[in-house]
Amino acid sequence: MTDASQGEDGPVAGGRGEEPSSADETLHLRVDALRADETMQLRVPAPPEPPAPGGGRAERRRGARAGGRERARAAAGGAAGRLLGPLAPYARRMAPYARRTAVLARRLKPVYPRPGRTGWRRWMPSWRQWTGVVLSSCGLLGAFLVTAYAMTDIPGNLNAYATQQDNVYFWSDGTPMARTGWVQRQAMPLKDIPPDVRWAVLAAENESFYSDPGISVKGISRALFRTVGEGDTEGGSTITQQYVKNVYLTQNQTISRKFTEAMIALKLDNKMSKDEILEGYLNTSWFGRGTYGIQRAAQAYYGKDVGRLNASEAAMLASLLKGAGLYDPTLGKANHARAVERWSWILDRMVKIGKLSPEERATYRHFPEPLRTNPLYDTGEQSDYLVELASQYAKKAGHLTAKQFDLGGYQIYTTFDRKREQAVTGAVTKAREEARQNDPKVAENGHYGAASVAADGRILAVYGGPDHRRQGYNESNATTVPAGSAFLPFVYAAGLEHGVRKTRGGPATPVTPDSVYDGDDGVPVTTPEGPYWDRSGKKVAAHNDDGRSYGPLTLREALAKSVNTPFMQLGMDTGLDKVRQTAEASGLLSSSMGPQVPALSLGNSTPSAIRMASGYATFAAQGDHTEPYSVRLITRNGSPVPLATPHPKRAVGAQTAQAVTDALTDSFRAAHPEAAAGRSGVSGKAGTTDKDTAAWYVGTADSVSTAVVVYRIDLAESLEPLPLKGLAGTSAHSVPYALWSAATGLG
What we know:
Layout: H1 25-36, H2 38-43, H3 57-84, H4 88-108, H5 127-151, E1 167-170, E2 176-180, H6 195-205, H7 217-230, H8 239-247, H9 255-271, H10 274-284, E3 286-288, E4 291-292, H11 294-302, H12 311-319, H13 324-327, H14 333-352, H15 358-363, H16 383-397, H17 402-406, E5 410-414, H18 418-438, H19 440-443, E6 446-454, E7 459-463, H20 488-498, E8 516-518, E9 526-527, E10 530-531, E11 552-554, H21 555-560, H22 564-574, H23 576-586, H24 609-620, E12 624-625, E13 631-636, E14 639-640, E15 649-650, H25 654-671, H26 673-676, E16 682-688, E17 694-701, E18 704-712, H27 735-744
Parallel strand pairs: 1-5
Antiparallel strand pairs: 1-2, 3-4, 5-13, 6-7, 6-18, 8-11, 9-10, 12-15, 13-14, 16-17, 17-18
Helix pairs in contact: 6-12, 6-14, 8-9, 8-10, 12-14, 18-27, 20-22, 20-23, 20-25, 22-23
C-alpha cells in the first residue's frame, strides 16, 4: 500500500503508529554547517565542571600542571614536525611497503595460545614463523660469511713453521758448542714423491682432497661442537686447512684461529692448484724426531730418501701426522701399539679408495719397524751427549713442547765447562784404549761414566760414551750399577742428623763422629728386638772388603777407612727410612733407591754418576742441595725464554755436612797422601760392590764434586752388570781414581 501523504522530499515525521521518518537531508546540511561554524563554537563554550567539594586551591594547582604538560607536548610536537617535515615525501613512498611488512609481521607474530589449535600445538610456532626464522638466519649467516671471505687476505709472509731454524748451544764461556742441524727440511717436488706416499697421506688425513673446496664443513662443525661443548678442540681440518695452519697461522687451538684458517683455505684453494697445496703440505708438516717434511722424515725413520719408500713405510710415516709423540713406535709399548693399529688402518683405507690393490695390501703383513734413533741427529761426537742432556733440560725447565723446540731459533747457554769436558773425555778415551790393549774381550763391554757437578748444581762436564751415533746410551746418566761403599756418606749423614734408637719407640740418642761401633767382619745386624733375620731364616751379618776386621772404631774412622760393618748397623739404628730420606734429599733419585733392607746401607741403590756427584756436592755446599742443571739461559731470536732455574734446599744441617766432609777428607789423605800434600779443600772416597760389578771414585775439589764409575754391561744381551775382571785396575792403581784426578786437575 502506498502512503499518499509522502511527498517528493520523503514522509513527514510524526503520527502515532507510523514508522520513523528517514533523516532529513536538509536538516543534516544545516547541522553540519552549524558544526563547522567556528564562530558558533566560540559563542557556545562548554560549561565548566563544578569544583569538587573542598577542592579550591589544590584543584587549581593540578589544572595548572596539566596545562603545562599539554603546552610542553604541543611544543615538542612542533619541533618534531619541523625536523621530520622534509622526510614526509619519503615516508609516503615507503608507506605501502611498511603496511605490507606490518601485515607480514602480524602474521609471523606469535599469538599464544594459538587459536584453532588444541593441546601442545597451541604453543608451537606456525610453519610460516619457522620458515621466516630459518630464512632470516640463513640470510644473515650467508651475509656474514660473504663479508668475512671478502675481508680475509692470504698473508704475504710465511710464519716460523715454514721457515725452520737451527738451535745453537754454547759453552759456559759463551763460545759456540754445537749447532743442531737435524731440524732443517729439504723441500721435495711433488713429482719426486711416489704416488703411494702421497695417497698414504691423503688416505690418513683427507681422502676427498682433490674434490673438496679446501674446507670440511663436517669437520669444522665437529671441532666447534667439541670446543664449545667440552672446552676442547678437535681436528677435522682438510689438508688445505692444515697447510694454511703450518705456513700462515699459529698452532693455537682456538675458534678464531679455526675460522681464519677456513677463510684462508677457501681463498687458497681458488688461487693454488691441488698439487701445489699437497706439495707444500708434505714439505712443511712435522713428523717428530726434529724433522719437518716427508723427505727428512724418510731419512730420520728409515735412513732413505722419500723416493725409495714403499706403501707400507709411507703408511707408517703418515700415521705420525696425527701426533708423533703418540705414534712414534720407538717411544714405548703404548706408542708401538697405536702406530701398528693406525698403520694397518691407513693401508686398508688406501684399498678402499682404490689406490692400493688388495693383492699388494696382502703383502704388507708385518709392521715396518723404523730405526731406533735418528741418523740425522747423531754426529758421533762427545758433544752429542751434552746436547742431549741440555735439550732435555731446556724443554723441561723452559716449559717447551718437543714440537716447539724442534721449530728452532733457540740459543741454549749451557753450564758445560770446555776445559773440564776436554780433560775428562781425554782421560776416558785413553783408559778405553789401554783396556783394549790389555784385554780386548773384557774391554768390549766396558763402560765409563763420569760427571762433575758444582756445589750450586751446575753440571760442568760429563762423559756419556764413545760415540753417540753407535751408542745413544749415556753412561753418565745411567742407573744400572750399585753405588756400593760410595753410598756410606749418606748413612753417616743420616745418623748424625737424626740420631739412633736402641729401643722400639724410644727417644733418639744423638750420634757424633766419635761414636764407637764394632768394625769386625761378620758382625750380626741387630734390631731392638734382637738379631735381624732374612726371609730365608738366616741371621743377617755385615762384611768388610776382603773379610778384614778392624775392632771398635769411631764412625769418622770407619768412613775414612771405608769399613762396612759399622754403617750397616748404624743404618738399622737410625732407621732405613731415614737413610733413604737423607739420600734423596741430598740428590739421589727415589727411582734409583734399592730395597729397604739392611743392604741399603751398603749401597744396593743404583744412582747415576751425575746424581752421585750431585749428592757429594750437597756436603760441599754445607748441607744445601741444588738440583743438577745443564742450562743457565735460553733465548729465542734474542728474547729471553722464562727458565725455571732450581734453588737450593736444605738437605742436612751444616754441622752434619761439615762432619761428612771432614771424614771424606781423611779418606782422601789416607789413600792418596802425595796428591793431598799441599792441597786443601779436597775430599773423596772409593766405592766397591759386593760382587765386583762396579768401581767408583767420588770426591770434591774446589767446590766441584766429580763421580767416576767403571762397569761392564753387554748392551746386546741385557742391562745386568757383569764382573769387572780387572777392568777397573787394582786398589793401588785404581782406574776410577785416575780418571777422577784427571777430571779434577789433580792427576
